[in-house]
Amino acid sequence: MSTNSEEAADEAFDDAAARRLLELGQREEALRREFPVDGPVWERTAVSHYTAYAAMLHEDRGWRQLFPALPTEDEARTDLRDVLRVRALDGGELSSRFARAAEAVAEGEDQVIIGDDVYRLVRVEETVIMTDHGPQTPQRHDREFPEMLDERPGPRGPGQPLHD
């Protein structure tokens, strides 16, 4: 004979959702091993005069930059936090994880993993291309960061509005 509280507990527990979250956790752990934050030191091939910051997302297709490079780490961290907050609005059963990840980034985390996706704050080296005649001028084939790929919400990017 079961009590009403046991029946309520059985109804509240979603076995399929629990299995999905366990599988996500196992995939996330594999991604943590594949994409460690503390990687090897890369030898520079060019002199870097400026450092900028952005965020990238590793998906099935590879790494994708989420917004244009910004002059300070704090600006990039704020924008990645806001991208994660917007994703929390439409994240379904992962909404709370996106929200926690947004706060973790705001508190200093450089990488968060949600489901199969790795979000990482990154350094971008901006260089001046020098030629025999001095610094290179703009070229016709130069490409700016495509506005349609800018996922920042609110006034900084064309993404969804951010409601604080």
How would you portray this structure in words?
There is one protein chain. This protein has helices at residues 4-12, 15-34, 73-89, 95-106, and strands at residues 50-59, 62-65, 111-114, 117-126, 130-131, 134-135. 35% of the residues lie in helices and 20% in strands. The chain contains 4 helices and 6 strands; from the N terminus they run ααββααββββ. A hairpin with a 2-residue loop joins strand 3 (111-114) and strand 4 (117-126). Helix 3 (73-89) runs antiparallel to helix 4 (95-106). The protein starts with a helix and ends in a 29-residue tail after the last strand. It is an alpha+beta fold and 164 residues long. Strands 2-1-4-3 form a 4-stranded antiparallel beta sheet, with helices on both faces. A two-stranded antiparallel sheet has the order 5-6.
Question: What does this entry show, briefly?
Answer:
The protein has 4 helices and 6 strands; from the N terminus they run ααββααββββ.
Given helix and strand content, the structural type is alpha+beta
Q: Biggest sheet: strands side by side, in what order?
A: 2-1-4-3
Q: How much helicity do the residues have? A: 25-40%
Please mark out the parts with pLDDT under 50 across 5 or more consecutive residues, or reply none: none
DSSP summary, beta strand count: 6
Radius of gyration, whole Å:
21 Å
Question: Secondary-structure element order, as H and E?
Answer: HHEEHHEEEE
β-strand amount: 15-25%
Number of helices: 4
On the 0-100 scale, what is the average pLDDT? Answer: 83
Distance between the termini: 49 Å
Q: In one word, what is the shape?
A: elongated
